[in-house]
Amino acid sequence: MSSSNGLQHKSGRLKATNAIIDVRSLGFEPHTVKVFNVTNLATVERFPGLGDSANPERNKKTVAAGTVTTLATGGVTILAADSAGNPGFRIPVLADINDTTTEDLAWEAWGGPEPVNP
Q1: Are the beta carbons of 52 and 75 closer than 8 angstroms?
Q2: Which of 7, 22, 25, 87 could make a disulfide contact with 29, Cβ separation 3.0–4.6 Å?
């Protein structure tokens, strides 16, 4: 989905795998990604300028109790286009997010012009 200002948005659902999950069905390169564990109500978020798995301290994780933490390892990674031209993002194996095969995940990704600070 794309808006008149060029912002693109897509969302989806999938099962946790306790293994890395690459999501490449977006049709655009995301700059913001939110992954929500529907089963245990934990979230990991990656925003523009916050980093990727090379700078994981810039991903934020929120657990059901409301505690927000800066990740010490791992985090959502933006993926460049593969050989078929499909960019996307990677969901890591991460406690409370993707550390089992029985939980449901939902995700949202935004692309297009990155938000600018006023």
Answers
A1: yes
A2: 87
Alpha-helix runs per DSSP H in 17-97: none
Q: Is 40 contained in some domain?
A: yes
Domain ranges, residue 91: 8-111
CB atoms within 10 A of CB 13: 10
- Whether residue 23 is contained in a domain is answered as yes
Residue 93 lies in a domain: yes
Q: What is the pTM of this model?
A: 0.83
Which pLDDT tens digit goes with each residue over 19-47? 999 999 899 999 899 999 999 999 999 87
Q: Given this model, what pLDDT does residue 112 score? A: 83
**What is the distance between the alpha carbons of residues 112 and 9, in angstroms, rounded to a whole number?**
9
Contact by Cβ (8 Å): 60, 32: no
- Residue 2 DSSP one-character state: B
Residue 116, domain member (yes or no): no
- CATH number at 34 reads 2.60.40
Q: CA–CA separation, 118 vs 63, rounded Å?
A: 30
| Chain position carrying tokens 């089963």 | 39
